[in-house]
Amino acid sequence: MFVTLLFKSVVSRRGVPVAGLLVALGCATATLQGQTAELPSNPSPNPSSLSNTYYGSVTLHPATDGVLKLSLDEAVSRGLETNLGLKDAETQERTFKGQLIDAAQVFLPSITVSGSTGFHQYDLAAFGFGPGILGKFSGLFPNGLPPGLSFITKADLTTGQINYEQTIFSGPYIDAYKAVRAAEKSAYFGKMSARGEVVQQVASAYLQVIAAQSDVDNAKALMDADKVLLDQAHAKHEAGTVANLDELRARVQYQQQQQTVVAYENKREKEEILLKREIGVAPGQKIELTDPAPYSELASRTPEELKTEAYANRQDYQNLQAQEREGRMALGASRQERLPTLSFKGNYGVTGVTGVGYHGTLSAIGTLSVPIFREGSLRGDNDVAKAQLESVDLQLRDIRGRIDQQVRSAMLDVQAAQKLVQVARSNVDLATQALSDETDRFNAGLDDTLPLVQAQATLQNAQSNLVASLYQFNLAKLALARSAGVIEQQYRSYLGR
Question: Average pLDDT, whole number, for the chain?
Fold first, then answer.
């Protein structure tokens, strides 16, 4: 008899598409043809805890009228406290702990106390004490058998016992206990891996809300600039210094920017709801994120350094190591099924008939059980244990290569995202300068509104790219911390908080 218990956790992450929207208006169509506004498309339906438990949580408090201010640390702390995926992993660990205690009971003494009293009626003839048997003892009765002798007797019987039972040695039970202990350790590492997943999920959702808010702020700033441009174009048209087409272009640009603001605000609100869902905050609760979008460069690390760190800290790697130990114990238990089992049980008590008296009873039994022939069962158990151990060994070899691949890929993502941030910042600076120059030319009457509208669209696109680049850079750093197995302890330093 042996025990094999496995624990796994699979998680995934979402992606959000972005598309553009073409806007044209009446007689300005020919002039504005091809001009687009960068609007977020309707995202795919919000992720559900039905498909991924890490998108769910336990809501601890109802919504209030106040505004809940959340830092990144507070959001992560709430996620670790309420996230449904982590709660499931903690439940698994408690289950294994209970099974470990249950397995230990096999080697502990079992002591019970029992007592009973009852009325009993016996048919002596049914037990072989018929008239023929009693006739053989007639010499003991000179005057013959007592008259009225009945073969039906009645008695009030009372008993009380203390029972003791214990397995002294059993090879299969010993290794089975060790296997359950290894499985409990595996469940612990599974829980720790789930904590890392929660940190990555919550931090990513928090950063996504910050990025969405940055898009809203940039869009509103451009909308305010468009309003100023519209007012100027209207005043110049009224004064007869510019054509009606210039005012029409400015009005189209302003209304288009209003659409952009509405779309970005809708996206931000949805991202806030998803964040609240992951950290156990009521969906109707108003929140305010207090940490801005972080940016910091990472210290240079080699793949070998990160790989060594990952081997020491990755919970999924340690989980498989624990499963390997569990498999070896299970295989040992299957082999030791051929060994004898020694056990002891006994009891002491009193037994008596009411009115007659009581006397003590005692039993002490040692049992040595030796399997003689159970080849089918023994070989089957051994083959199953070998197959399971080989499966874990293959997974363990695979995860070493996977850690190497993940660390190197994450490092490349960080390096590429950092370069994109640098380019995006340079583009924002150039677009800002271009817009400033074009505004001066428009105010001086050297250009009409078309170059100015194009310069504003270029700046908005550059700002959106910068926001997206910062978000991707921070996500890449979180993925690198996760691949090294230190995200829960070091996510702040990786993000530069």
Answer: 77
Q: Report the distance separating Cα 481 and Cα 414, nearest Å.
A: 11
3-state secondary structure string across 4-22: CCCCCCCCCCCCCCCCCEE
| Conformational region of residue 281, where left means phi above 0, alpha means psi within -120 to 50, and beta covers everything else | beta
> How does DSSP classify residue 125?
G
| CA–CA gap between residue 437 and residue 435 (Å, rounded) | 5
Q: Which residues contact 179 (CB under 8 A, 6 or more apart)?
A: 2, 3, 4, 5, 326, 327, 329, 330, 333
487 vs 496, which has greater pLDDT? 487
| Residue type at position 471 | Y
Instruction: Give per-residue burial for 125-155: e unless 16+ CB within 10 Å, then b.
Output: eeeeeeeeeeeeeeeeeeeeeeeeeeeeeee
Grouping H, G, I as helix, E, B as strand and the rest as coil, residue 38 is: coil
**Position 327 confidence tier, pLDDT thresholds 50, 70, 90:** confident
State CA 142 to chain mean position distance. 91
Q: Is the pLDDT of residue 266 over 90?
A: yes
What is the DSSP secondary structure assignment for residue 496, as one 8-state letter?
T
* Among 314, 55, 320, residue whose Cα is nearest residue 187: 320
- For the beta carbon of residue 410, count every other beta carbon within 10 angstroms: 21
- Sorted by sequence, the CB contacts under 8 Å of residue 152 that are 6+ apart come out as 121, 122, 123, 124
Question: pLDDT value at position 49?
Answer: 66
The model's pTM is: 0.65
